[in-house]
Specification:
By secondary structure, the chain is α/β, with parallel strands linked by helices. The protein contains 13 helices and 13 strands. It has 2 domains: 4-119 and 361-370, 2-Layer Sandwich (Enolase-like, domain 1), CATH 3.30.390; 124-348, TIM Barrel (Alpha-Beta Barrel), CATH 3.20.20. It is globular, with a radius of gyration of 20 Å.
Length: 373
Amino acid sequence: MSRIVSIATCLVDCPLFVAAVFSTRVVSARQYLLVRLQCDDGYEGIGAAYCGDQGGETSLAAARNILIPLLIGEDPTATEAHWHRMYRHALLQGRAGAVLRAISAIDCALWDRNAKAAALPLWKYLGAFHQGRVPAYASGGYYYPEADIDRLQAEMANYVDRGFTAVKMKVGRAAPSVDRDRVKAAREAVGPDVKLMMDANNAWTDVATAATFLAMVETFNPFWIEEPFSPDDLDNHARLSVRTRVPIATGEIEAGRWRFREMIRREAVQIAQPDMFACGGVTEWRRIATLADACGVPVCTHAWQDFHAPLMAAVPNALMVEWFLDDRIVNLQTLLDRPLEVENGNVVLSDKPGFGFDFDEACLRQVTRIGWA
């Protein structure tokens, strides 16, 4: 039986060339916790987790001081047992946030290693509901300081020209009338048949404001409104869901299956968005997707397209992978030696074992904050 002999971690700090302007914040850099797991049979796995724009040292410390010592010398295929042990062992330090993101990164590395040992791409190792490709949507539509409407229309039209049949834009930062004009302009740019999603990034605090805005844009047939409120405000999500015909999508910073169960039970979400880096890795993401499927709720992923695509390809209720065409907003793919590609609005899945890529060490050296250890 194979045993885990080492787990190395590092923290990288990747600046964005242009700051990303969300409804509630501006992000100028992204930090990632990276994991490399080695077994005595020669197979290794890699994992990662997004740690926000600062404070990634907390996730790194959790991995090195609390979690990794639990796994050395253990069987790498015991993913359920390892997840349970890590989660239980770190209850007092945090069963969400930075500590759970550290669990996520280590869990990802275990699954990557196990799929490689089986000589299978991860999407096949997990069950392969989709074959070779999985649908994606183009994510963008951020706020621009100048000529916002013109640039938004050009961006949305470009996505459609590239073969995407679904696109997403930001709302919630500008005045409701301004955002209404932006949604109208985006709909005109993509035409009537393309799915148009809106992302508020937790912009609103009351149902009246959210419902009033959604009533203003319903005529443009939005496919969903994403993160209208704080993730902790399930009551307002539930209240809004009966005030609008626009489906609510949320969950990208939720911590685990228990919170998703509560969201679904209270009818606070119509499209679940578990993020493998936030919710507990491959192991917990699969549980959430299965829970959602049992309740008739589709799942979409949040960012990190190269890591998420294999998971989405393996579940029947997968709707679309969130896809960023370049590294202006999400830049994790620049750290990979073989990032995935998209063709005609579909992610082309890798046929290589595991996730199908490794870290680009030359690139890592330029952005490493705390090196491998």
